[in-house]
Structure formats: structure tokens, C-alpha cells
Model the fold of this input.
Amino acid sequence: MEEIINKVAQDKLDFNVGLQQLLQYDFESLFVTLSNYIINSIPNKTDYNSEAYQNALATIPLKPTYTPLIILKTYPTKIAFNKLPLLPKSENDKIIISLLWIFKITDTERRNTECKNGCGHFWHEIY
Ligand SMILES: [Zn+2]
Done:
């Protein structure tokens, strides 16, 4: 699962192909992994917000009226991440699409900035 997520983030695997593979995993572990990855990829540890994060929210490839998108845009990152798993199961796929999209953008930003001159993130070297 971790490898698929990082390959999608690094454009080594098509977003939709990777997404279909990830949706085979159970929602709980996928959600925990993706939300932790996003939190870790945002340099601002005060409110876990950044230009890349906001840019990601604005470009999620889903209808902006879907509940998970409204929650993500309304609440600060960590509060939104606490609310998402409480939604009905019918929202699960939309949540995963949103989080995978966000991580792709926030991780790409990190790779182009703080990781640019080498970093200790093993997944940026291996995958
Ligand atoms: Zn790195």
C-alpha cells in the first residue's frame, strides 16, 4: 500500500491505476496511512496548512459539492481529518480520492523544496 501511494505521488504510477489498486485495501488502514502521510508532508506543524495544501484542495478531481470536499475546505486540516471517517461508508471512495490527490501535491512540493538536496525519506529514494 505504501509503495503504491508513493509511486502515485511521484508520477511513477498513473493516478487512476494506483487508486483502483489502493481501493482493494480496507478503508481504515488506507485512511490512517494517507492522513499521516499528508500531515508529515506539510512543513507547517502549527496548523498543518500550506499553499500546496490549499492548491491541492482546490484541484481535487471531484465535484466540489461532495461532503468530504466541503469538510476539507471548511475545517483546519487535523479537524477535517477527524471528521472524515465519521461520514457514511458511501463517502469512502471520495475520501480516498481526495487524500491521495492532496498527498500527491503536498509530497511533490516537499520533494521540490526541502528534499531537493537529498533527504532521509527512504521512500523518496526507493520507489
Ligand atoms: Zn524526502
